[in-house]
Amino acid sequence: MSQYREEVERAGKLADGGEPDAAMEICNKVLLDEPDNPGALYVVGTVLLHSARHAQAIQIAKRLTEIRPKGPLGWSLLTALYCELHRYDESIRYAEKALACRRDAKTLADMGYAHVNAGNWEIGAGYAQEALKLAKGDDSQRAREAARDSLIHLVYCQLATKNWKSGFEGYRLTMRTKWRKEWTYGDSQEWQGEPDAVVMVTGEQGLGDEIMAASVVPDAANACKRFILDCDHRLGALFQRSFPNVVVTPTRRSDTVYLDPEKTSAPTHHKSLFGLSELFRREDADFPRKPFLVPNPDYVRMFRGLFDGKRTIGLAWSGGFPRTGLEPRTAGLNAFLPLLRREQAQFVSLQYKDDSREVEEFAKAHGISLIRLPWVTGQGSDCDLLAGLIAALDEVVGVHTSALHVSSALGVPTTILTHRGSGWRYGPDELLWYPPTTKLHKKRTGESWRECVGRLVEARK
Question: What is the pLDDT of residue 1?
Answer without folding.
Answer: 46
